[in-house]
Design goal:
By secondary structure, the chain is mainly beta. The chain is built from three helices and 49 strands. Helices cover 4% and strands 36% of the residues.
Length: 677
Amino acid sequence: MTVEWSSRCLNIALSEFRLVPISHSRSGVASVCAAALTLSGLLVTGTVAAQPAAAADQAGYQNVRINEVTSSNNDTVELYNTGPNAVSISGWRMSDDSFSPQTFSPSSSTIPAGGFVTFNSPKGLGDADKLVIYTAGGTVVDRVEWAANGAKPAMARCGGDGTGGWVTTTTASTFGASNASGCPSSIPAASRVRINEVTSEGADTVELFNGGNSAVSIGSWKYVDNDTSHSSVPISSSSPSATSIPAKGYVTFDSALGLGDNASVFLLDSNGNTVDSVSWATDAAKPSDERCANGTGWFHTSTTTTLGSANSCSGSGGGGTGGGGGQLLGGGGSLTSGCTPEAPSGTGSTPAGTLAWPGGLDVTIADNVCAFTTSTGPEGRDLSGLAFDPANPSVLWAAKNKNWLYKLVKSNGKWIPDASWSVTGKQIRFADGTGQPDSEGLTVGADGHIYVTSERDNTNNTVPKDTIMEFDPAATGSTLTPIHQWDMTSQFPQLNTGSKDDANLGFEGVGYVPDSWLTANGWVDPLTNAAYNPANYPLHGSGLFFAGLEWDGTLHVYGLDSDGTFTTFGTIATGKNSVMDVTFDAGTQRIVATCDNTCGETHTFMKVNANGAIVPDVTYTNPAVMPTDNLEGFAIAPKSTCANGFREAVWSDDGIYGFGSGSSSYGHAVYSGTFPC
């Protein structure tokens, strides 16, 4: 038989016995090679009994991460698959720091891509403990350690399932679902430090990145590899020595343990709590394994190292945690007569602190080419606002700038106009039955009516007309007139300059936010400086409307009264230069302010803070496979649609440009991806 050793060791042909390598670390290579040479000499005088081969590691094992663990009650463990393919965990085992690896009974023997599996520890977990997961072949998959009470009520990855830093949660555990709702509102500074890049060539270097806004002391932090016989090593004793990592900065050090193939690095803080980890398969850290996006995303095999600076994210993919950079699927088709895509304009930078898209990496082009041509918009462009119908999530409402509404339904994976409502969409007018509302955003109210924002009349496009209009989707006919119309134009004199460009920077999106969320979260009414009391506004219905202003990225809050008047509750800063769509997501219990390429294709999730103010919580960018275009519409499907831990997210391209002429996305407006439940 032929024994396959590390490339740094000899390949020794043996005819009567099998040797099984026992160390993955470089420091053990010399002794293992020496042992091999000694044993080969024994063949002259005797034989060694054959040993059974170790079980092969399951494909994609390195993409499975411990995602949540509790040392309370049933001592439950949650695993999450960050990779693009399902992974079998049949035969896997676990251990803590006091017993040998044991089998466990998972909720499923296979973890789907982006899915969760849970199990109860067969031996229990202590107040201060260590959990290690092994493949059936004995390879370490992942490991997490916590100090006293660190896993009560639970210890979970926050800032992204499978990719976030470890944090002791402050609310109930979220086993079998995304950790987001169980994570504290403010992630500790230490948990914003990530292993960002690692190489198993040359000096076996590890790079850390601090995604937070303040420096973090790491003088007492340690690291360890996947060899469970190894003790952890202080970062400060490694070369070069490091004791602090600056905000938005990097630290690199050479592993004193050596890093080989099928290996891991685990980062521990001064209390012994795990901060982050990465595992990689054969050759996946050559030349390096790097997070994509930098500091937040899943790991990816690079083509060149970028130690000490932002990751290049140009490589083969599939090497480390998460594998692959995703695929853009679907699309294609020839442009119809008159259909003319428009190249994007106004591209700006991504705000600091933006996190990678937390959903699936793959995105599908989900409409027919040139699907939204109309009599007032024959070029097919300007599909802007999107909103799922909460009462019927199989329906997606869409607003086209030049006064059209569409009721979309799924057919063979595509969002197409509902023929029973109108196969060509319905034209909308202002309350007097005239004009062409520059319909940019829309939302669905508690009454099932569609509320649409307009920033001007396209028949007089140099004059702003910032309005919110209420339409009954059950009304018959091909043209809809609003039941009510609320005009806020006078509040924005900066838009009334005689310039069509300024007039085009008004209400770009709108989201209906229920009173129940505002009161439950302690929102302070800026008109009374006391807790919001809906009873003070008897004609407004059961929620308020948050309109996004493209001019400066602010949200403007209104109570829309049934008598045609309205109450203005003030302005909310989103932290963005512009806002293109607004939605309330009941799944995350957040208001989402979306900006297109103007702000780096980002979505800011807003919460109510301890002082009763609505403030930014976390910002995500789009999946990396999507174009950088005027993607003005965004909607997330209700949580009731969740499957395998995900629900649909949908975008619309105002310019139907995609990646340009000749690309599969050219002439398409609608993109479909996934968002965690």
